[in-house]
């Protein structure tokens, strides 16, 4: 069974919002197996939207991330000119995070919104480089700095 607990003001365009989601899974005996938390602060200044991500972005929290960002991208009257995703507070992610980033990138492209990935922690950057998404999502590929065939970013 999965339960959700959220905190923060209701979502909607027009000002700074905060949204936190805790997803708790319980096994058949009612024991809590895991608790995942994602905290999203949304700030809109003029036509720029900044989403600050803290916590875990993975299978359990991907929906909250997509729903929050989608609320602002789908605003028919005034879509943002820039979407800045700030990952300075990201503590962990899995392949679902990559799926979420691809989904958001598709939506920003369709809306004519510029897409930025700010303050990427090394583990996220490594995943983006290994999958080639660094170039696809940001247009700025990272090249290995040593002559060891590119394995230096793995250490």
**What is the total tally of β strands?**
6
Strand order of the largest sheet: 1-2-3-4-5-6
CATH superfamily: STAS domain
| Highest-level CATH class | Alpha Beta
- Low-pLDDT residue spans: 1-16, 140-155
User: In total, how many domains does the architecture comprise?
Assistant: 1
- The class by helix and strand makeup works out as alpha/beta
Tell me the fraction of residues in β-strands, as a range. 35-45%
Global geometry: globular
CATH architecture term: 2-Layer Sandwich
Largest sheet: 6 strands, mixed
- Mean pLDDT, all residues: 77
Helix fraction? 25-40%
**SSE series:** EEEEHEHEHH
Q: N-to-C terminal Cα separation, in Å?
A: 38 Å
Radius of gyration: 17 Å
CATH fold-level label? Transcription Regulator spoIIAA
Quickly count the helices.
Answer: 4
Structural summary, described in words:
The chain has helices at residues 62-73, 95-111, 122-131, 133-138; strands at 2-7, 17-26, 32-45, 48-57, 82-93, 114-118. With 155 residues, it is of the alpha/beta class. The protein has a single domain (39-154), classed as 2-Layer Sandwich (Transcription Regulator spoIIAA). It has a six-stranded mixed beta sheet with strand order 1-2-3-4-5-6, with helices on one face. β2 (17-26) and β3 (32-45) form a beta hairpin. α1 runs parallel beside α2 (95-111). Residues 1-16 and 140-155 have low confidence and may be disordered.
